[in-house]
Queue: 4 jobs
Job 1
Amino acid sequence: DGLAVDGTLGDAGPSFSQRVCTQATLLSFELWVMVVDVLSDLADSISGDWNAIFGPQKKTRNNRPGSLWQFFLCTERAMKQVFANFYGFMGEMLIHLGIGFVISNSAGKLEYMGPYPDPICAITPYRFIESCDTPQIDLYTATGQFLCFGTTFAGVITGANTFGYEQVNYFRESAAGLSSVPYFFAKVLVNFPKVIIAGVLFYLPFSSDMLNNGTDGQLFNMLIGTYFFAFAMGYCVSQVVDIKMVPLVAVFIAVVLLIIFSGVAAVKLKDISSTGGKNIFKLSGNRWTIQAFYTSQTESLTSLDGGIYDGTDYIDIQAGKEDIGYGDESFD
């Protein structure tokens, strides 16, 4: 193969193995270039999507920042609105502290006396038989009602301020491209510390003068849950009434929830038989708050704790629960 036409030895060409190596090198280089192009396009796509979601876009007539970027901007602005004026913020929170002191007067005088024993009821005059097997003194439901009234009234007013004073700004910015969802969740997120601080400021004076038969955690969690419900009611109220009318509407809502939808006043849970009526009461935060307060405070009265009589039956609270309707499993 290496001989020339004239029979002399000429230059030898590349061998078969060399040609295979060259082709393999070229093929691998082309594959590498293809992979690099694909990864480069993927990186550009990811970078573009990241900037579209998290980064500000160029101001043009037709585009607007992404939803997450709007959420961050609205959260930053809401934090400045809530916490920049420290004295205004604390003044708003001290309302809950004052209401806690007022409601604590009833919490310091809690009394409960269960029903009379069956032998006593057997010889009771006829006119007293109806109330013989129910609690003779029960101030826990009344205290739960006062608690709900104070927290609902203060929570609705504080919650309504979140959106009530910004309706004009919201409609103007919404017309310019602001999305409602990130705006709403940003305001609600910033309100979380307000709900917690309001609950703590109410809890401190309320629990200071109260003989708590439950645990501190049960009482605190119940108050925080009630405040979340009240703030949510305030959000709704601010959308349907003028902000100047909110205090009056807050009193109306607190009274209606207290008397009608608490389950212990004008309408007791045991008197509700229809499924629709029960579903309405399931939506009432005050109904759950009073039941949680009543159950946590009276559960320890069923038996004696400590001493030689430890574990001995003490007070029959089941009769009182059934008189209200707390024994109805369809509510649980």
Job 2
Amino acid sequence: PFEDKIVSVLRNTPAGFTSRHPPYLQLPLALIIAMMFSDPLLAADFTTALQLGAGNAASISLDHKHVEVIGPAAALTVQGADYSLRDTWLRNGAGPGVGVGGSGHLQAAGLDATTHGSGAPALRVDTQGRVQLSAASSLLTTDGRSPAAMVQDGELQVSDSSLHTLGVLSPGIEVGSNALLHVERSQIETLEMTSAGIRETSNGLAGLVRDSQIHTHQAESAGVLVSGSSGTLTLSHTGVLTDAGSSTGVWAENGSHVVLDQGSTVHSRGDVADAVSASRNSSIEMSDGQLFSEGARSAAARAASGSSITLLGSRALAVGPQAAGLIIEDDARI
């Protein structure tokens, strides 16, 4: 049960930061525990998967409703219709939570969606779907290969919300090709191995994360990983924290470009875990920010294989055996 996993993480998570740490707080793990015990005791209003389209969306309201299903299909699907919901509680015991596509548009305020089962994202946006998630919405997945949110060939806007994953290979947000991502004032947290906070691949559109926090707890879990994307991902006034070995804070590779500005901070804690890393003809630009790595053979900033890192008005600090503030490899530059 994932209750034991939560307790284990809490016991091994430092209570807070000292003055030398970047100025952002740890994400509220207690929130996840509260979510575990906050499931309503009332009977569900809907116990079969809902498929909403142009023909029936207007006649079904999910405001202040409970949807609880067990099955491989998404608990709620919106296709080819504009739909809004508020304060909806949604659970799927064996599959995905919400799917939006076919040019469908969903405005979700106060959505509380949790999924169980492998390959079960809480939210999936594709085929020109659009989703606006707001007003303290919460997405949680409990098993492996289950991002809290996935977007490809669609648009995802997240504000004032939280996204958590408890399984392996489960990024907070998975971003694919032709995807528009905009995150503001939100929290993204992953608690298992190989689970990046944000993982973006082969995307040609620009993205923005502003005034947010990203925290990963286990090994091989970058805070932000961008690979093979021609669109720039910008992190503005955002804190990134990784808490295990081989977990780079912000990693750009394969021709990708990442910008960190407006006082963003990146902090990696673990061996072979750089704060920022650019490789294979990629670039990272930071202005007015802070980089901090704690761990053996780690760097505050590492550039390799034809890549570049630009630091303007920023601080870079590395602590640990064989660690370095700046590491330049091959024909890279900082």
Job 3
Amino acid sequence: PEKETVIRAEIPGTVLLRGDVDAPVFKRALGTHQTLVADFKGDVQAVYEVDTWSRMGERATLAEVEFQPGSYFYNAAAGRLYVSSTDLRPADQHRYSVPVLGRHGLELEKPVRVVLEGIAVRGFESSRMADSRTLFGNWGIIFLGARDCIIRDCTAFLNGGGICIASEGEGGNLVEGCTGYGNSSPHNSSECAGVLLYQSKNDVARNCVGYRSIGVGVRIYGLAAEHGLLEHCLGWGNEGPDIGIKAGKAETCATKNSVGLGYFPVLNVSNSILGSQNIYVPDEKITKDNIHLKTERLNLEQEFCYKRRGLSGMRLTSAMRNSPPDGKDRGPFPY
């Protein structure tokens, strides 16, 4: 068998790979009410308002920035960057960053038995559309044509897309304990996920979290995708599905013991919390081992305990415990 290759932060939480730079100090542009300006020389790929996890919309002219909050214009010839904050507050009440590399972050081609562990990435995005193999976007971490690889305890934020493993073959990959948030791209607004298994085969995402991205939270996607599993995953606050599976062989894929507080399109789902619609299963046919917040009147604080990352387990007095028809606990959190 091939030798295992390990890429690991020696001390977890100490390695951050950046494709962006901190923006300089802004000041009010002369003759304007809402437009801020700073001197900046570089290849501006995008602009992020870091403290609100917002990607600023690029505008074709300076005049548009004054009337469109959350936008920017870059005058490359003059070396001046103009922004209008998302809430029209002064620039010193926000922090901004500028992606400048215009590419993926940590990208591996056809990796086999590679373990990536404890790495964080931010600011990898491009003003130009990528190719269809990467769903037209740029990713903080992306493994292409991966086999028997593991991405563990990694974080991707403020990129075009977060963390992606694309099997394109035998697969057998695992994404575990990873988090993606605040990722967004105009080139692929529907699929720039927090965590994505793309064209997956026998791949698993376990204990992963995806939130506040313009696309999806945690998802399996692709015409060739089959035999994939999302397990113990959490998604919330995304503009697309919080938890989702859209695969050519969706009947072979499944989601177990997961929480999606919004849109949750999955054909095979068990012991999970669904916050909203599941287009593949009518409300009345969602099995009772799941909890469907859209149709059930629940007091979550009464039924569940809370920890920093959200729901953590059922209370002793929860009506979800020892429920019919099989007498087992409902949802993803047995006591």
Job 4
Amino acid sequence: SLVLVLLGTLNDDGSVTAFTSHGTPRSLLHPSQLSVASKNPVLDFFSSLQQQSPTPVVEKSVVQKRVLGSQENLMLPRQYGPNPNVKFPQMNHVSCAILSSTPTERTLRAALDQVMQAHPLLQCTVEGDGEPEERIDLFQMVRKGEPNPCTFVSRPGMFSSKDVLSIIDVDGTDRSRLDKSWQEAFHRDLDDGSWCQVETTPLWKVELHRLKGAKNGPCALLFSFNHAISDQSSASKLTDQIVSIMAEIDQRGTTALRNPPKKQQIPLSVEESVLGKQRTFQDVQIQDFSPGTVQYIAGKALEEAKGPVILPDGFSQGGGALG
């Protein structure tokens, strides 16, 4: 059987904040004690998996497109200044699941192909350069106009498991060797996004780390995403879907699923989720701000003044980068 035990976030000091499958915080643990570790957990939404309302099902042959939202644009390798030769690197999101047994390559590939066919951002590229019509400030950083915006383009069948899956055979039978292998790859992919060329390659990849000398021993599934298409909720639910599909394939002895995942639409951007379809933050007018919205923003600003909201409550007591 394939078992997924815990979810969590890998901290800079090597500790892990662990979560149950419902996102409930648990104690701080070391990465070697967890079945799932992650980094950069909550910034965007990559599939209908994490949306509260069902996403409409679409025809399998439909090419889907959506302009990236402002937050998604920040995750791309992107030119912010006027020098076309200077680009900020992409932001990466990495998640790892430890399975209690190792699936066959055939089973894993079949499960990956199923989820890729269902979720369009798992087989898409980005078209458009996102460059403005003009830069209107002294430092040429403020943009005006966007004639060729960065756009998600998903064409059914453009990618498959052959384009995203790598098999890493680890020498030996010791679990510590397996952990060393996936943890090194985890830290590598946090900072190095060279594996992804957003114009031509998938925006994610998977590595199966398995022990060569252990028959049916544990393995690690290491997921790396361009952060424009992922948050940890999405990655966790994607992992659960892949594991569930593999379990059904093992149980029934066939890759023909009873209820294969249905083809979904590209999910809304954060702006569209808040403001409505086809709207961005630049469309916001004064009438869009209710007293409740103003109160919420003011409250968050006060929170930020007290301390960085993304850090644990006990951070100011010492430790970490600030001593």
